[in-house]
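TA notes, week 10

Several of you asked for a full example with nothing omitted. So below is the full record: structure tokens for the whole chain, then the designed sequence directly under it. When grading your own attempts, check the secondary structure regions first.
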């Protein structure tokens, strides 16, 4: 058994796809604009037996339950997802230079170095150093 796909609710899947691919560096796993369907994956995952790695579905938040969950997390300042990076401080500098908004500067905590960014699509995303 393996993790095949997870999702996050976003305000605009097409805009989220642009952010996650152009800014964060994910790769498109599937894009069907006519269905408002976008799935991305990290560029380093090849998956087992060439199955393509774990997909991140950029789920439309047009469902009231999904929108409530997304908005509730965002309003409380909680990240919807955690992404691993090799160097949090380097990613903070790179993404800040591209206009990405962060809650604060990177910080050392009990579990390591992390920082939280706003994806501009309704979510906070935590970057955690591997």
């Amino acid at each position: 058994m393996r993790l095949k796909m997870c999702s996050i609710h976003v305000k605009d899947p097409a805009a989220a796809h642009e952010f996650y691919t152009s800014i964060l560096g994910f790769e498109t796993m599937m894009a069907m604009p006519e269905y408002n369907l976008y799935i991305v994956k990290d560029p380093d995952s090849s998956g087992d037996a060439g199955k393509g790695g774990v997909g991140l579905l950029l789920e439309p938040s047009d469902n009231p339950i999904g929108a409530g969950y997304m908005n509730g997390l965002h309003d409380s300042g909680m990240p919807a997802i955690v992404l691993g990076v090799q160097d949090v401080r380097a990613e903070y500098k790179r993404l800040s230079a591209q206009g990405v908004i962060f809650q604060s500067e990177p910080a050392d905590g009990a579990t390591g170095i992390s920082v939280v960014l706003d994806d501009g699509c309704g979510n906070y995303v935590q970057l955690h150093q591997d």
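Strands lie at 5-10, 27-32, 37-41, 55-60, 79-85, 101-102, 107-109, 112-118, 124-129. Use that as a sanity check on your answer.
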